[in-house]
Amino acid sequence: MNAAFGPSGQESSVAAVIEEMAKPFCDEIRTDVMGNLICHKKGPGKKIMFAAHMDSIGMMVTHIEKEGWLRFGKIGWIPEKEVVGTPVKFANGVKGVVYCNEMEDEGKVKPEDLYIDIGANSAEEAKTHVRPGDMCVYDTRSAMAMNNCIISSYTDNRSGCCVLLMTMELLKKSVNDLYFVFTTQEEVGLRGARTAAFGIAPDYAIAVDVTGADNVPKSTHACSSSVGKGAAIKVKDSSVICSPAVNAILVELAEKKKIAYQMDVLTGGGTDAGPMHVNMDGVPTSGVSIPCKFCHCPQEMVSADDMESCAKLCAAFAEYKF
Ligand SMILES: [Zn+2]
After folding, report:
1. How far apart, in whole angstroms, are the C-alpha atoms of residue 265 and residue 268?
2. Which domains can be identified in the chain, with CATH numbers?
3. How close is the Cα of 242 to the center of ligand 1, in Å?
4. What is the pLDDT of residues 191-232, one digit of tens each?
5. Spatial CA neighbour of 79 closest among 299, 321, 258
């Protein structure tokens, strides 16, 4: 799934992979106008919408220099100084590397200094492969580190998509009416979840996404959860203050089923919980988050054990008798 090309607005390759994996576990699958993949597992109880975004951040070509270098704009938030030297790929398979104009001040990279070199020797040559408006994504390798940690690009939010698939797999009979929605365009403004929530009109909603990790050197404590310490139950991010009633249920379930959990307070950054909780006349909403180090960098890190805890907690909530 991580190898699938899927910057915001071009998620269909990711959706195709997920659809194949989700098929055995749900009754109906459809794709809406925004490209959201909506997997429905029917049940008599409350309508619950789980959302995990499929899209990744990316770079969109704005201009091709006469020497063949590509200038670009950011699709979603990209940390400039982290991307220098990063390999990238386009949908058509063209590869390149991000670099920057000579830095005046070591370590200070301005967004306008960045460019992509695809090996072309002229604008004419570059234009036979890439045009303004084309997008590329990080093309880095994945690996496993200690303590079941996954190093990969786009664990934000392919790890969340995996958690939803794992949740579906854990469920036996469905007491509630469940919608597992793989959303689009989260990274550019939580857009897909907005229309999906409107179409579904859920009674409850849970966003499954990564969150900041506090276990890094010199942390400013802008977030509360740590990689490896369990499913992070969202209290707030900059798009939502979560429902205390839903969180009370999540905590109760985690305690009862002995699922490792922690609380997720994030001072910045939004999630699909944002548009879902203000859908129609309001939806009790929370988030089940996967703590992630180096978020939006070319290599991110999450714990597979945390993902498993998240899936168990989501499955418990899906089976909750309201
Ligand atoms: Zn995300």
Report:
1. 9
2. 12-56+153-318 (3.40.630.10), 58-138 (2.40.30.40)
3. 17
4. 999 999 999 999 999 999 999 999 999 999 999 999 999 999
5. 299
Q: What pTM value is reported for the model?
A: 0.96
The C-alpha angle 279, 174, 262, rounded to 5 degrees, equals: 65
* C-alpha atoms less than 13 angstroms from C-alpha of 313 in its C-beta half-sphere: 35
Instruction: Please state, in angstroms and rounded to a whole number, the distance separating the CA atoms of residues 213 and 29.
Output: 33
123 sits in which H/E element? helix 123-127
Reply yes or no on whether 319 is catalytic: no
Residue of 28, 65, 67, 186 marked catalytic: 186
Q: Which amino acid is at 24?
A: P
Q: How far is the CA of 303 from the centre of ligand 1 (A)?
A: 15
pLDDT tens-digit map of 100-136: 988 777 678 888 899 999 999 999 999 999 999 999 9
> Residue 24 burial by CB count (10 A; 0-12/13-18/19+): exposed, middle or buried?
exposed
